[in-house]
């Protein structure tokens, strides 16, 4: 990638490094497929200029603010808004300087890598951040951000993004995606598409769930006072999301548990929830049951299911009380997949019409559960290492762990899952470099011929994510063939 | 190994590679000790020619059929028999071509490695499998398989197998092993020996357990209607197995749980089971108790105990319903050893007359439980990485994880555990190469002198498995010495 | 380190090795900060000569005796005392020879490394241990041990130890530390300091807990018959420990569970325990509650809290019955941190006045729980890999696992935690070499500039442990700043 040290992240041993370079060169300039992430669609719908460097890169990035919190610097001093409106630092330059003074904390972290490479590749700034350079970097970035070439759509083109999926709730009116479609940027097959993320109308423990369900009914023109109406409303919204270009749904649950209830049992749970009488076990059972319901809907409408389990939300209660959600207070917990996914897999696990991409925050399931499951069920694919695991060392361990049982073709390709638009190219570049290094080792150890490694890295970077997420054409050799399906 | 790329699997760095070559050269041609596996003894007893290449290498190999299933190709299309006799693909060449069309799925997997090296070293075929070469490879293999040099016993000699253990149930009449003994191939100290695997008469959840127990009584000439008679029958059958050359027993349980019941309690459980009144907890308790009983028997008759816990059998229920057991539908589950093994270890853990070889499908117990246990109890040895873990990356991680606490001499040497006769030499070769690479790194990092690394790799490849499994002479320096035992 | 192979433990690849050498050279001769360990303070208070080589290096080292036990050599044959006074081997030379005959068992283990480098660097003996050299090594060591240069205080100087913390119970009268202070060796800011380890008066399951609590009251001049008096007595003893130079407390619990009870609830538990009516759940709840109490005391008196959870003590019951505690019979168990630490973190997790150093015996929590917690709470620091994990491979995996989420500055620096005085320099040297190798890879992969790697390795070896454990000045850039705290 222009601006990046050529050998960044490649193995040091000369033979492997040469192979890694050769393999990386094949994918370096391939378009970016970003089938899952959290970019605000307004950014591209309105194409408004970005704010100052601090608001662009620091304030919204919980990877950064949590690290400073871990060393005693409270988020308010970095401009993170408070729930009750208590004053926080508002001067971008002050935030930037404060952050720069703690830059050494990020040595060896992906945040250091992403930010540094973003300075270089996006803003053409090759200075090292620090108290002495903070102002110059800030000023040069601020100047660039004022130029038209740094408006979101211009960067989108420059980043060579082919498809970017945002994530919306069924309660979103998809207005911004309509605007994008009107501008020739969105809609089915478009460059910016949406993703159906129903947690706030599925999780009874979500603040305001019952109100959300009522609102869902209004949006969908269905009576969500009853369970059948609730299901009908979800189907309507899925249709609307498909019409806005969605090719997948996403489900963020505390556990991977699935459950198959009878309609009557499910209706009872639903009613108990609507009457505010559901307890934690009811909520867990309903979430688990709905995953199986959504799998059934997916077989009908073709949306690929993504499952993101294992995050204990708002573990840092002081942080949640002061600053709210998604500011760095979530922590992973041990996640069990084998027994949790059984009801879903019993129902549809061998049906190649279904695609379930499973992610994890618990790498200690890679060889024991995830690889054997993905290598044994037609419907399962392994999502890229996620969140706390989305970094060079783990990306490498992921390949080292899952490939021997699941191969490459039961994985779903890299997913950036980011809120930070400017970091998208760097994140994909890092994944491509790690795959190049891993494949280079297989070649150097005579475990894979170079030409097959070359075909594989192109598949991992481009064809696999398109195929698994049903974007464009399926990857021919791995698609369910005319030979028919397993069920 | 003749035919194999000389540096296969060796570290790429030149210094370590040179050391790995030097160490590997010491074990490359050593005889193979295969103390545990699932080769059908009929194969060697009758020495009948092998079937066509597809029936030899693909149809019975669940590593292969599950990978194609994971990409939507049903096992029936690969000739895997159905339980109800529904038609499946029967043409070997069609199966072979279909498999070849999906060969890319196995990039980076041990199956790719094993099969490719089997082509080369056993059949002298150096072509890369694919749609274009499928027929030629098939024809050349089929031609070879018709030659007398490719009969099982001829290959056994060519593979330099010194001892091969098969696995039989106590209900097996051991007729094939009698034939082998009669031919000078079997019996105590013979080349083909058996292993006592009593799961089908111990696990009350096993289909037809009660009938099996009755049958056991008939075979043993004991009244298995009572618990004492049941124990007596098991002792009789162990004697018969020892007479057929067995040096070990094998126990495949869902968990590693052990339990020490009084005879009265055990008898009650047994009776409940025989009356069909045992529940899941009873079955687990009885399995757990019997492990302690078998340990006691081992101290008497010297059979080495193997424990294979942690596999959830038939997790893929559709696959089980359609094709039955052992066709790729099993998945590992988290396995706890510390508390589970306590009753057994309290009873006999410090008694060097007992040898218990513990395997795992859960590598996330290597440093936390398995290495500390094997490094702290005289009776415990660590079995080689098993099944989903039986591949280069994990073999390497196993040494990196357990050596620092358990050393090399509390491990049991490589075990192929395979149903695929032709893959035995390659599997042992892979393990020898990984050990060579690991030891080469210790030498390169000045952690072990080369001469000790040389002694160690020979021990790992040959002396340790013989000693731990009581085949031939014990490995002198590590055997319990005249100094006496710990208990 | 003089006497050690220059490239010991460095990566074999030439470029990384050169970088590792360069980085290691910066820390090779830095003073040793040993903020936690189990050296007997009498050793330095009385400065008495060491016993014979066997009693110095083998008899008290459970890493060594458990390995021989695992191969059938009972600890009595190595001179480990028995509880009931049954005779054990008493001849140092016989023990030494017996040990030397089993030296091959330690290939690839840290014990091999530590002992071999201790021979070289402390005793200037470059022979390889074995039956042929046992006597010569024994005699040469014995001769050295008779010289004044090999008295404990002389070695302390030679080892360049700046600060060494021992570990005492609140029931210790700290007389030896008074002697050390009188000699100018101890006291606040001294070279030998103590650590407050209250397990024997906190854990109701500890033998003689109630008697210990009574004794605690006498020592502290408080009435420990009541819960408030018990808390007051603990505060008094903490004051005495602070006066003896302590900067930290240490807590060894079976689990990491914390709990916040009301004073009334805690008092009830305490009374139940004192009346001998507490069950296992009561004991666990009281331990968990006291951790939160100690955190509160730490905020007042500044003692850094160390938490050592996850060891199942005396798992080998025969060993415990025969030889007692701390002779190699402990085994790690799976340890959960996320939910266990929640009550403590809810109370004080964001308060930078509190420092909690968390250790683990369960490396399968590194990326899932420990790194995210340490990288998200101001009060938490990650302790060095402990006990079974205190070895080169795991030290490397620790950095590879936690750095991406917690960085380097939420770790606490190396801790030797040893009973073996002569192994202290080697253990720290090993950690410095592993960090040099890890940082060298980051530099070689262009992930960190060399000058920052250089600053980092000096911080890890010297500044971080001093800062985290409040020894000397805090490490300026990472100390809670004048900007104020998070809570």
UniProtKB/TrEMBL annotation, chains A, B, C:
PANTHER family: URONATE ISOMERASE. Keywords: Isomerase. It catalyses: D-glucuronate = D-fructuronate; aldehydo-D-galacturonate = keto-D-tagaturonate. Pfam families: UxaC. It comes from the Bacteria. NCBIfam families: PRK02925.1. The keyword Isomerase applies. Pathway: Carbohydrate metabolism; pentose and glucuronate interconversion. Coiled coil: none annotated. The gene is uxaC. Its EC number is 5.3.1.12. GO terms for molecular function: glucuronate isomerase activity. This is Uronate isomerase. It is an enzyme of class 5 (isomerase). Gene3D superfamilies: Metal-dependent hydrolases, uronate isomerase, domain 2, chain A. Belongs to the metallo-dependent hydrolases superfamily. Uronate isomerase family. InterPro entries: Metal_Hydrolase, Uronate_isomerase. SUPFAM superfamilies: Metallo-dependent hydrolases (SSF51556).
């Amino acid at each position: 990638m222009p601006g990046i040290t050529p050998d960044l992240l490649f193995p040091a041993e000369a033979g492997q490094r040469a192979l890694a370079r050769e393999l990386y060169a094949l994918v370096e300039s391939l378009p970016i497929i970003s089938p899952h992430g959290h970019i605000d669609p307004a950014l591209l719908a309105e194409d408004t200029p970005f704010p100052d460097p601090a608001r662009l890169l620091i304030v919204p990035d919980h990877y950064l603010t949590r690290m400073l919190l871990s060393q005693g610097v409270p988020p308010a001093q970095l401009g993170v808004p408070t729930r009750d409106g208590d004053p926080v630092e508002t001067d971008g330059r002050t935030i930037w300087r404060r952050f720069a003074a703690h830059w050494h904390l990020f040595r060896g972290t992906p945040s250091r890598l992403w930010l540094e490479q973003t300075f270089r590749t996006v803003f053409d700034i090759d200075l090292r951040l620090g108290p002495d350079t903070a102002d110059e970097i800030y000023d040069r970035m601020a100047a660039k951000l004022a130029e038209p070439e740094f408006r979101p759509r211009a960067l989108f083109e420059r980043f060579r993004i082919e498809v970017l999926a945002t994530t919306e709730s069924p309660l979103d009116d998809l207005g911004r995606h309509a605007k994008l479609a009107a501008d020739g940027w969105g809609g089915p097959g478009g460059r910016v598409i949406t993703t159906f993320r129903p947690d706030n109308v599925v999780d009874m423990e979500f603040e305001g769930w019952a109100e959300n369900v009522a609102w869902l009914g209004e949006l969908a023109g269905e009576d969500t006072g009853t369970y059948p109406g609730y299901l009908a409303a979800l189907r309507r919204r899925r249709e609307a999301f498909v019409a806005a270009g969605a090719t997948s749904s996403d489900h963020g649950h505390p556990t991977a548990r699935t459950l198959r209830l009878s309609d009557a049992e499910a209706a009872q749970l639903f009613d108990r929830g609507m009457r505010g009488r559901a307890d934690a076990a009811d909520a867990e059972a309903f979430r688990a049951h709905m995953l199986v319901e959504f799998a059934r809907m997916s077989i009908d409408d073709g949306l690929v299911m993504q499952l993101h389990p294992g995050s204990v939300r708002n573990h840092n209660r002081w942080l949640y009380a002061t600053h709210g959600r998604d500011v760095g207070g979530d922590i992973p917990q041990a996640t069990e997949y084998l027994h949790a996914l059984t009801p879903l897999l019993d129902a549809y696990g061998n049906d190649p019409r279904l695609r379930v991409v499973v992610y994890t925050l618990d790498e200690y399931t890679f060889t024991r559960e995830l690889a054997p499951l993905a290598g044994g069920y037609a419907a399962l694919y392994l999502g890229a290492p996620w969140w706390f695991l989305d970094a060079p060392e783990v990306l490498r361990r992921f390949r080292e762990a899952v490939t021997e049982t699941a191969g490459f073709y039961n994985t779903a390709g890299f997913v950036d899952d980011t809120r930070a638009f400017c970091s998208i190219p760097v994140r994909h570049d890092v994944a491509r470099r790690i795959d190049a290094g891993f494949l280079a080792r297989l070649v150097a150890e005579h475990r894979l011929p170079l030409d097959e490694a070359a075909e594989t890295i192109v598949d991992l970077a481009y064809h696999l994510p398109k195929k698994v997420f049903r974007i464009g054409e399926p990857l021919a050799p791995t698609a369910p063939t005319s030979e028919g399906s397993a069920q």
